[in-house]
Amino acid sequence: MSIIVLCFIGIFSAIYFFVLRDFHKEDDGFGYIPIVMFGLFSLFFIGIIAYMISIFVTDLNAGIKDCFEGIIEDKRLDIKQSTSRAGGSGIRGSRGRKTSTKRYYYITIDGIEHKIDYTMYMNVKVGDTVYFEIAPKSHVILFYEVLESAPSISSAIIERSEKRSYPDSKVRQAPLTQKDKNTIRTFYDTKMRSRLLVVGLLGVIIFGLIYNGLIIIVIFMFPIPLIACTQLYKAILLYFNFKKSVDHGRKLLTNTQVTDKLFTTISNNKGKHQKNTITTSYKVMLVPESIYQNIKIGDEIIVHEASHLSIIIGITLDDVYYEF
Q1: What's the CATH architecture for 66-150?
Q2: How far apart are the first and last CA of the chain?
């Protein structure tokens, strides 16, 4: 806080002494206007800094902390993105934009959401019984402790899963249903359109330059042809993997156990969207909200996947199949 105050004083002092000090000597009668505006602007920033300082002073003077204990029911990561102009005017100024991202971390205990810091957020998981202390006004985490960890799987499975080698005994196969084939087809169509769109747009740029004898520019823009070739290769690979998955006619069923949950909200100028993520001993995966709400830490689930594509078709929980 002291560093912020000193920087503020230095910046505004420099503006006044090097830019505005002699403005009041102007004879046109408007010399005081920039100084008055500068003063109002300074008071605004002084008010913000004073408020920030008062938050910590209030906690120190009160001498009281809030103490909480309970089982973590959910975790949430709130990502706020804002885009603003970086300065300039006219056409050039409209292109210059600055994007800032802020992350806020929350846990839910007894139906009440608590804002916490990154360190605590990364060291606790859903299902843990925790005790923590917070400064009421500034929300500084003073102390936290995991009293009891959530039910966990055996360390052997965790170690092997981290090496991307899941136990073969946990994986079996089953026939694809017509709904499974429709889901795979939808996934394939979406991915293929995306890849072909990139290839098409970049291809027009590349061949347009070559047609006009500007091959030297293509050479200097080597990342663009490289990206186009990579996307074309992935599109071809996607097609053959899709054919293999459908022709094979079977899906992979993987038994695994839920170890953590995460609810993420992302806000930006275009609106807000949400992601529901579960962590298992097999992999981390995005799931629909209906499945996320029904899953608890320690639950054993069966993940249904296409045989040659990286797509999850559905999940079986308590003998109930949830289609993606």
Answers
A1: Beta Barrel (2.40)
A2: 49
